Amino acid sequence: MNPKRNRQALRTAGLFALAMTLVTCGLVVPRKGWSKRWGPLVPHKTFPGDCSLCHVPDRWDKLRDDFSFDHEKETGVALKGAHKKAACLRCHNDFGPVEAYVARGCAGCHQDPHGTQLGGDCTACHTEENWRPVGIVAKHARTRFPLVGRHAVTACSLCHIRAPTGDFRGASKQCAQCHQAALAEAQNPDHRANGWVTNCERCHTPRGWSGAAFDHLFFPLSGGHALTDCSRCHTNGGFDGLTKDCLSCHADDRARAPGHDKFSVMCQQCHNTSRWEDAEVDHSFFPLTAGHALTDCSRCHTNGGFEGLSKDCLSCHADDRARAPNHDKFPTTCQQCHTTTRWKGAVFNHRFPLRGEHNVDCSVCHTTPDTRVFSCFGCHEHSRDRTDKKHREVNGYTYSSAACVQCHPNGEE
């Protein structure tokens, strides 16, 4: 065999084997067939020579289904959130050593959309899960416009019109800046016609436009005045010049009330805002207690008026006195014996204690209407003889009541 020919054959075989190795491991052909849409080509200089450890046969764009790489164990850097799902080429590419990007933090891979306006610490608002900011409501509380109510769930771009470009500066605090449409729709009442185009917070809260609470302290809206329809009182469409005088709205009510033409026009002296009925009159000049606590004023004020009525009991109770036995001899100051609770059960201040056997009906002793002066013997004449024998000249007294009360001060045995 020709040695020269043999050397040529061996050289050809070696080149073929080398070519086959290059094709199998993909060190030549894939570089020519790499699609740029797959991303930048990863430098494999430090990777193992066995491509099948990671790739499927004849495919550079797909890893094996059972491919697994413990990034934290092998590199010391744990991948979390969205970084754990990202393609390797997003960080490992031919743009330069990945260590250089890691050293720069978030800015190593992510361009700052805020133009450094919000500082370089992206983790102050973002996490590794996604780009959606977190804790913005709490952070916004440290600004000049805390987010409460509906503002806390509103998209940032609705107030920060340059938010899509990452610029959050210059947002106005004025309600009308964002709520022009709502202002135009406010027709009941007409906000523009009344000049209510600023300082919306006087009536509205961030919870919503409806249910506005106007500061009506100069005329508290309580009870029947707590109306939701302003036009019930403000009938001319305006909100200025309305008087606080009750009769400006309730003149007809007063005209229908009996005897009120004699009353003061200060209705609040007796009435409250809950209802016209059950008015509480300051009747302290003649306390209305017990039987006098009447809800129908006309029971006493029979002439339809409320002036000139006497406080004398007989002005109302003359007939009651006439029907009471022997009361024509009694004084007309009925309150000496009676109370406002009832006529019966009168308590009389009797100068002679009515105790024991003496606690009897008045007529037992007062046998005639004019019986006023008594002595013990006036009732106990039948025991004179017995008294004489046992009590003759007791303490120097003879046949007198004064002698009796020495031993019987309460008229008892």
List key phrases describing it:
mainly alpha
Explain how this protein is built.
The structure is a single chain. By secondary structure, this protein is an all-alpha fold. Among the domains are: 1-33; 36-103, no CATH class; 220-282, no CATH class; 353-413, no CATH class. The protein is built from 14 helices and no strands. It is elongated.
Briefly summarize what is shown:
The protein is mostly helical. The protein has helices at residues 3-25, 29-33, 71-75, 81-85, 98-103, 136-140, 175-178, 180-185, 247-256, 314-323, 362-365, 376-379, 384-391, 401-407.
Query: What's the number of helices?
Result: 14
Tell me what portion of residues adopts beta-strand conformation.
Answer: under 5%
Helical percentage:
10-25%
Using DSSP, what is the number of strands?
0
Class inferred from helices and paired strands: mainly alpha
Radius of gyration of CA atoms, rounded to a whole number: 55 Å
**Backbone shape:** elongated
Largest sheet: none
What is the residue-mean pLDDT, rounded to a whole number? 76
The helix-strand sequence is: HHHHHHHHHHHHHH
Report low-confidence residues grouped into runs of 5 or more: 9-32
Q: Report the span from N to C terminus.
A: 174 Å
Task: Break the fold down into its secondary structure elements and pairings.
Elements lengths: L2 H23 L3 H5 L37 H5 L5 H5 L12 H6 L32 H5 L34 H4 L1 H6 L61 H10 L57 H10 L38 H4 L10 H4 L4 H8 L9 H7 L6
